[in-house]
């Protein structure tokens, strides 16, 4: 079950990143984050009410609050790093956040066997290569590297925090709701500050009408992201965190394949090799 839930996580995160990337080409990134999370929080609020999740409130929800604070900060750092570029370096570095949950698992006493250890190494290498790392060309600004590393460890921190936010399915719904409400508060505050400083909240072309037209896509991005958080939490609860984290971090492969399938972007040789290594690592982890 761990492998199944973790692979579902990578699929959902990969599709969410792909959709979010398309939306941010036309709409300010903070607006995409805030609107998608508002929709998701509303849906989760209905689910929590219908399942009686409010009764699961307890101290563990502070993990969800922390995840809700860290998530938007990590995403903002990641978008700023992508703006500084080069993307061929930023993208694969962003996947290094897997070190956080893997490290937490090792500290907790998890010890992968030899086959799983090999799978971890192969899968991580595949994820980095699937991002299409730029081995030559434009120099990388130190600020871009720093922002990317902050984002990566922020993403990894969210994975670890949300995995500890609940022990039951109904409690998980409540934890995800709290996380999303916190996301909206933090992201909304950042958007307000951005607008006060002269930034844009609406697309240049179409304004509010363009945002309304994009609501289905925004809903998909938000719901896919929250579903990924949920499946990762289940994966971490059903098996070794070291395995769940690595398998869940295959999402850059999904994003690259989605770009190939929907946008007809050609995979570079290094990306194709990375996708193959990620597949091999997945097999080793699943059979280990």
Offer a quick outline of the entry.
The chain crosses the membrane at residues 28-49, 61-82, 114-132, 144-165, 171-193, 205-223, 243-263, 270-287. The protein has helices at residues 2-23, 29-51, 61-84, 87-94, 99-107, 114-130, 142-163, 169-196, 207-213, 215-238, 241-248, 251-262, 269-287.
What does this protein look like?
- It is a single chain.
- Helices cover 77% and strands 0% of the residues.
- With 288 residues, it is mainly α.
- It is globular and about 55 Å long.
- It has one domain.
- The model has no long low-confidence stretch (mean pLDDT 82).
- It has helices at 2-23, 29-51, 61-84, 87-94, 99-107, 114-130, 142-163, 169-196, 207-213, 215-238, 241-248, 251-262, 269-287.
- InterPro entries: EamA_dom (IPR000620), EmrE-like (IPR037185).
- Residues 3-130, 144-286 form the EamA domain.
- Keywords: Membrane, Transmembrane, Transmembrane helix.
- Belongs to the EamA transporter family.
- This is DMT family transporter.
Topology:
Layout: H1 2-23, H2 29-51, H3 61-84, H4 87-94, H5 99-107, H6 114-130, H7 142-163, H8 169-196, H9 207-213, H10 215-238, H11 241-248, H12 251-262, H13 269-287
Labels describing this entry:
EamA_dom, 288 residues, 13 helices, mainly alpha, globular
Uncertain parts: none
Radius of gyration: 18 Å
Overall outline? globular
Total separate domains: 1
Number of helices: 13
Mean pLDDT: 82
What does the main sheet amount to? none
Pfam family, one: EamA
Domain EamA: 3-130, 144-286
Organism: Streptomyces drozdowiczii
Family: Belongs to the EamA transporter family.
